[in-house]
UniProtKB/TrEMBL annotation:
<feature type="region of interest" description="Disordered">
    <location>
        <begin position="1"/>
        <end position="90"/>
    </location>
</feature>
<feature type="region of interest" description="Disordered">
    <location>
        <begin position="553"/>
        <end position="590"/>
    </location>
</feature>
<dbReference type="InterPro" id="IPR000061">
    <property type="entry name" value="Surp"/>
</dbReference>
<dbReference type="GO" id="GO:0005634">
    <property type="term" value="C:nucleus"/>
</dbReference>
<dbReference type="InterPro" id="IPR006569">
    <property type="entry name" value="CID_dom"/>
</dbReference>
<feature type="compositionally biased region" description="Basic and acidic residues">
    <location>
        <begin position="1"/>
        <end position="10"/>
    </location>
</feature>
<dbReference type="InterPro" id="IPR051485">
    <property type="entry name" value="SR-CTD_assoc_factor"/>
</dbReference>
<feature type="compositionally biased region" description="Basic residues">
    <location>
        <begin position="569"/>
        <end position="578"/>
    </location>
</feature>
<dbReference type="GO" id="GO:0006396">
    <property type="term" value="P:RNA processing"/>
</dbReference>
<feature type="region of interest" description="Disordered">
    <location>
        <begin position="605"/>
        <end position="665"/>
    </location>
</feature>
<feature type="compositionally biased region" description="Basic and acidic residues">
    <location>
        <begin position="553"/>
        <end position="568"/>
    </location>
</feature>
<feature type="domain" description="CID">
    <location>
        <begin position="377"/>
        <end position="553"/>
    </location>
</feature>
<dbReference type="GO" id="GO:0003723">
    <property type="term" value="F:RNA binding"/>
</dbReference>
<feature type="compositionally biased region" description="Basic residues">
    <location>
        <begin position="32"/>
        <end position="42"/>
    </location>
</feature>
<protein>
    <recommendedName>
        <fullName>SURP motif domain-containing protein</fullName>
    </recommendedName>
</protein>
<dbReference type="InterPro" id="IPR035967">
    <property type="entry name" value="SWAP/Surp_sf"/>
</dbReference>
<dbReference type="Pfam" id="PF01805">
    <property type="entry name" value="Surp"/>
</dbReference>
């Protein structure tokens, strides 16, 4: 008993007795509940003397090891709902619309956060407060620093409007320095964030299969078959590095690696300090170590510098796993360096695989990622396509010559679709037949005859290039798999690169003759009519093509038509002034307008409108003109003093304009 008292005390407060004045905050039950007595805390160590572990992210109340407050008595009310979560809460947080903006640059200005909601008029920001960081955790120490702010909206704001803003901006709005805006509903001091916690370099827990090898002897645990079966599949953290989905991103990362190899780590530091690089979204991966593109950048740099693919890239960090397949012909600098194609296998012996969409691996998606269904075009395939375009002669291409390009596009639908379309469109602006890709092309700047021959070949080469694009779009629209995506890629590039605007200006640039321009425009419009008949693209896109190519020609023809009408009007007015010997009256002006209207109707082919009755004003003007003509004839018949007979005969001779009458006459 003495040893027990020395270790646990004299029992005061444990059994509820031992003192004359018991603690009023301690409730001692009786009866069936006498074994679950409450007791106050003591400074002694031992079972039951430690304070309960607080929740994650909540500081422990009171001093370390001290009493946090009165013990909850049996039978008392237990808080429920949001109040049971603890922490500092706003009283009106559940009745108002408040957002939590996280993953912000540490030095961001609150006014910039307010401007982020300028595109949503219903979300009027009234206040922006910076939320102090909570107690540091393991995940926060591993991630880079960021700021979090509470955005309070006006009382008229609607929760649905905030949901709409979250759908459009959450993890999509780029803020510079590799930060993307993350939005959540603010729920007071215990707001729940949907942002997942990340491991260093974005490592994920993956299953790794180990080789079983040979069966161990019994003294080494060979009899434990169950344990060996469980050890065969094990999970551990791995950092995966995959090749980017598009060629432009691959080139950007490889150029950065070349800069680091030539200039050292100072090149990367200088690049990250450039203001344009900090605000440009295509360099977002450079500032975020867990970005999928940053992982490929680190892995490829480690692989080139160390000439190895060992998994331990960084000390005391998870192992790395590179791409399954290396980039083909990555270091090829000449056509002879390209790898040889694989042996052709008969289609009867092997089933042809239909092109399918490439799925995005888990953890490899990021904002601004290019559609992975396009793939990468190998250097050998790119060289082959350029050679095919360069070998097409500058004459009217045959159907079998154009069909080669459609077959090439269908076979590589998931291995560089956008690059194939890019090369086909480039062939319109700069035909490969007139480049160094054609072995027979010999440019000579001093030869005027060669330059003239080149200008004469351009219209046919450009027309052939557009026919190739048209056949690829028509063929892939009827093929299986994801070939239908060719039409969307073709339409986007034709619009974005302003192909038909260029085709419309080509006759003036090449100084085509009248017959050559007519033939050229008829060929282009024939292709456009095929697209309209086949409904190859959307109606808005087809209307854009027609407007870009034919609108200026239509306006020019309309202006020429109006100019001819004006010239006829001026000639007729001059003839009438000469015959009448005086200015045209107001009624004559109206008559000229009526004649121009009749001429326009005749030019437009609206012959049925000519039978419509004239208005009262037109009839009045016609009657007045007839009276004036009679008076003019009487004045002409009158004798002029001193006039000879020959002069009078010439004056009374019928004039050519008197032989024609207008519609009103």
């Amino acid at each position: 008993m003495a040893d027990f008292i020395d270790e646990h005390g004299d029992g005061a407060g444990v059994l509820g007795g031992g003192t004359d004045d018991p603690d009023p905050d301690v409730f001692v039950p009786t009866g069936a509940k006498r074994h679950f007595t409450g007791r106050s805390k003591s400074m002694k160590s031992g079972p039951g003397t430690l304070a309960p572990e607080p929740g994650a992210g909540f500081p422990r109340p009171g001093g370390p090891g001290g009493f946090a407050g009165p013990t909850q008595r049996f039978g008392s009310a237990v808080p429920r709902g949001p109040a049971a979560l603890g922490g500092n809460r706003d009283d009106n947080v559940y009745g108002s619309v408040v957002a939590k903006a996280s993953n912000l640059p540490p030095t961001i200005d609150p006014r910039r956060v307010e401007k982020l909601f300028a595109d949503f008029p219903s979300l009027k920001v009234t206040k922006v407060e910076r939320i102090p960081p909570s107690s540091p955790s393991t995940s926060s120490r591993m991630s880079r620093p960021s700021a979090t702010m509470k955005v309070i909206f006006d009382k008229d704001a609607n929760a649905r409007d905030l949901d709409d803003a979250m759908n459009k901006m959450n993890d999509k709005r780029y803020l510079g320095h590799g930060y993307y805006l993350h939005l959540d509903r603010y729920l007071g001091g215990v707001s729940i964030s949907t942002k997942q916690q990340e491991e260093p370099f974005g490592a994920t827990l993956q299953e790794v299969e180990f080789s079983k090898g040979y069966a161990p002897p019994p003294d080494l645990g060979g009899n434990h078959r169950d344990r060996l079966r469980e050890d065969a599949m094990n999970k551990r953290l791995l950092v995966t590095a995959n090749v980017p989905p598009d060629a432009d991103t691959v080139k950007l990362i490889h150029r950065t690696i070349e800069g680091v190899l030539e200039g050292g780590v100072e090149f990367e530091a200088a690049l990250m300090q450039d203001p344009h690089v900090q605000e440009e979204e295509r360099f977002a991966w450079l500032f975020d170590q867990s970005h999928p593109l940053n992982r490929y950048y680190r892995w490829r740099l480690h692989q080139i510098i160390n000439s190895t693919t060992r998994p331990n890239v960084f000390h005391r960090q998870p192992d790395w796993k590179g791409p399954k397949e290396a980039l083909p012909d990555e270091f090829a600098s000449d056509m002879w360096d390209l790898s040889q194609p694989m042996e052709q296998v008969d289609s009867d012996d092997s089933d042809e695989e239909k092109p399918t969409r490439i799925t995005i691996p888990i953890g490899e998606n990021y904002p601004g990622r290019v559609d992975s269904g396009y793939g990468l075009l190998t250097p050998r395939s790119r060289t082959m396509l350029i050679w095919l375009l360069a070998s097409l002669p500058p004459s009217s291409a045959l159907y079998d010559e154009i069909a080669v390009f459609s077959a090439f596009a269908v076979e590589r639908v998931s291995k560089g679709m956008d690059e194939i379309v890019h090369l086909l469109v480039t062939n319109i602006f700069q035909p490969f037949f007139l480049s160094k890709a054609n072995p027979k092309y010999r440019p000579d700047a001093n030869d005027s005859e060669a330059e003239s021959r080149k200008r004469g070949q351009l219209p046919q080469l450009i027309t052939n290039g557009l026919r190739i694009i048209s056949d690829v779009a028509l063929t892939t629209s009827k093929a299986s798999g994801v070939c239908y995506k060719y039409r969307m890629v073709i339409a986007n590039q034709l619009v974005n690169r302003k192909v038909f605007e260029y085709l419309e200006q080509l006759p003036n640039q090449l100084s085509m003759g009248r017959m050559g321009e007519i033939q050229y425009r008829d060929d282009i419009n024939a292709i456009l009519r095929v697209w309209e008949d086949e409904l190859l693209f959307e109606k808005e896109t087809l209307a854009h093509f027609d407007y870009a190519f034919n609108e200026r020609k239509r306006q020019k023809e309309q202006e020429e038509h109006e100019r001819k009408i004006a010239e006829r009007r001026q000639k007729k007015n001059a003839a009438r002034r000469k015959s009448a010997g005086e200015g045209i009256s107001e009624d004559d002006d109206k008559m000229c307008v009526d004649e121009d209207i009749s001429l326009n109707r005749f030019m437009d082919g609206a012959s049925d409108e000519r039978d419509e009755p004239l208005s009262h004003d037109v009839g009045a003007s016609t009657t007045g003109e007839a009276l004036q003509n009679e008076e003019a004839n009487e004045s002409d018949m009158a004798e002029v003093p001193g006039e000879s007979a020959a002069a009078r005969a010439r004056r009374l001779r019928p004039k050519a304009e008197d032989m024609f009458i207008s519609d009103g006459e």
